[in-house]
Structure formats: C-alpha cells, structure tokens
Amino acid sequence: MTITLLGTAGELHARVRAGRRAVVMTMGALHEGHATLIRTARGIAGPDGEVVVTVFVNPLQFGQGEDLDRYPRTLDSDLELAGESGADVVFAPAVDEVYPGGEPQVRITAGPMGERLEGSARPGHFDGMLTVVAKLLHLTRPDVALYGQKDAQQLALIRRMVRDLNFGVEIVGVPTVREDDGLALSSRNRYLSPAERRTALALSSALFAGQDRHAAQEALRARAREVPATRARAEALSAIGESRAAADAHAMATAVPGGPAAVRAAARQVLDEAARLNPPLALDYLALVDPSDFTEIGHDFTGEAVLAVAARVGATRLIDNLPLTFGAAS
User: Fold this and answer.
1) What is the dihedral of CA 275, 278, 279, 283, to 10 degrees?
2) Is 34 a catalytic residue?
3) Measuring CA to CA, how many Å separate 106 from each of 99, 102, 127, 131, 216?
4) What stretches of the chain show up as alpha helix (H) in DSSP?
C-alpha cells in the first residue's frame, strides 16, 4: 500500500476522505504489536476509510533520568511497517507542531487514578500522556482511536478523559501481542541482553501463573455452585467417586482469603524467584486492580480486573498485564 508521510496538521486536514478515520498513536520504533493495531484499524475504517498512524516521541511523558534521548527513532522502517500493515498516512509532526511556543502552560491532569502504579513510579507521566493524546486527537480529528491493552492504565485513563471531557471519538483497546516466548512486545525489548531477556520472561510467567491459579479457582467455584452441600447429593456423588472433588470445591468456594489473594501469591512466587537470578529482576509493583480506577480489589470482588506488573532488568523497565474476571461475572 502506498503510504503518505505528513508533518503538519494542515496537510492532514486538507486530505479528502469519504469514510471513517481511524488513528493509531505511537512513539515510533514500530513492531508487530503496532502492526496489529494498524491492521485492526484498517478493518474498522474499511476500504473507504482512512488509517492514520502518528509517530511522535512526546517529551512530556519522560521524567528526569528517563530515556528520552535514548528512545529509538526509526522513521524509515516505521513507514515501511505502517504501509505493509494497511495505513494510509504516517503523521510525524515536529515538536514545534505539537507544542507551538514551547511546553504547554495548560495541561490535562490525570487525577487520582494517574497517581497510582505507573503514576507513582513515574510522577507526571500520565499528565504528559493525556495532554499529548488530547492534542493529537484534535490534530488528527479521528472517528476512532486504537490503543494497546499492554498499557492498561494508559488505556483506562484515555477512556476516562474521553468520557469526562466529552471528546467525540470512539476508543478501542486491542489485546497485547506477545513474542513466541511470552514476552509482551515493546520497543524497549531491544535494550535487553540475552541474559536480561531470560530474566525478563518472569513478568509474563508471573502473570500466567496468576491466571492459571485464577482459572483453577473459578472452575472449582463453578463446580461448587453446581454441587449442593447436602448429604443426599454427597452420597450420590460418592458412588461415582466425586465426593472428594465436591468437598474440595466447597472448601475452595468458602475459603478466606478469597481468590484475589491466591492469584497475587502465585504471581509473587515467580517474581521472588526471578529476583534471585543473574541478572536479577527488580520489582516495581505487582497489583490486582479494578480497571475503572486502578485500586486494589478485595477478596469478595466480582467482575473485571487487571493483574499488572512492572519491573526493571538491568537498565530497562518493562510492564505487562493480563485481564481476569472474578465471580459471578465469569
């Protein structure tokens, strides 16, 4: 597909389009995760629509000592991948185009949700992220914008901003893309040495361990709901050798603390083991949160949740998460 490179909003606004415009926002260094976002956008926009990929390394998202200067800039290969994945336009504005006159004096504040987890580890990060997302939504004027679920807290905050401030755009989350070994795709993966990458696999391994524990608990709870704790039922089950399974199911269903604590414990065990590797994994946080506000869930929680982890391996900081559903909603 022929790809058009544009650097100003005026050039983008001058384009004639008949269908929907779908936007994928990136900081460049595109990989298969971005390609999945672009392909999804192409399907949403349809043959008559337009897919715009933004490439902008936002200085407001980098705190003191973070890797703004080190962040990879690979525009030529980004253009190639975007075109192969179905994009019509790459919008790569200069800093002056996005922030004319220097850093903006008026910014969007992420609020309490933006101070938790990633916000606590990276103060001001989400204020900068929301400010540039708001700017790029205005500059690109999309009907729909797509973001990866790997950055779960970012996605939740963008959805909240769009709802709270009445942006006329649909927000679509796209599932995390993983490499064959389970590591979530990230432009920062290229910084990892072979030994560091082996340690970094603990992030996804911890999440999958928590997911497995959760699945086993939910299966037992489902069985407990189907098997009433009555003497007659127990006698009938014993005839086919299921009495112990029924008892175990009821024990699990009434255990305290509940499922979330066991999920956290299963994930924590993997991360604790990784902390003893060479090189070691340095954990920032492991959290099991309500995606509506990113507060920790309690033992009696039901509904959608996010199991999230962040850690450093060497000089590289990585994040990952998995969605889980607890209780009746599952």
Assistant:
1) 0
2) yes
3) 11, 12, 11, 9, 49
4) 9-13, 32-45, 75-85, 95-98, 118-121, 125-140, 152-164, 194-226, 231-238, 243-253, 259-274
Burial environment of residue 242 by CB neighbours within 10 A (0 to 12, 13 to 18, 19 or more): middle
Six token digits for residue 58: 């936002």
Which residue in 202, 206, 327, 184 sits closest to 264, CA to CA?
206
The pLDDT value given to residue 212: 95
227 is in an annotated binding site: no
Tokens of 83: 């075109």
258 is in an annotated binding site: no
Long-range Cβ pairs for the range 292-296 (8 Å, 24+): 292/156, 293/112, 293/113, 294/113, 294/116, 294/117, 294/153, 294/156, 295/116
Candidate list 13, 34, 125, 250, residue with the active-site label: 34
**Is 113 annotated among the ligand-binding residues?**
no
Residue 165 DSSP one-character state: T
DSSP type of residue 172: E
According to the model, what pLDDT value does residue 239 have? 61
Give me 116's structure tokens. 């938790």
pTM of the model: 0.85
From the first residue on, what is the mean pLDDT of each consecutive set of 10 residues in the chain (330 residues)?
92 93 94 96 96 92 69 88 97 95 92 95 92 96 97 96 97 96 92 97 98 90 69 61 53 54 97 98 98 94 96 96 81
Tokens for 215, please give them: 């699945």
237 backbone dihedrals φ, ψ, rounded to 5°: -65, -35
Determine the Cα–Cα distance for residues 83 and 235; give it in Å rounded to an integer. Answer: 65
Query: 34 among the known binding-site residues?
Result: yes
CA–CA dist 208, 37 (Å, integer): 23
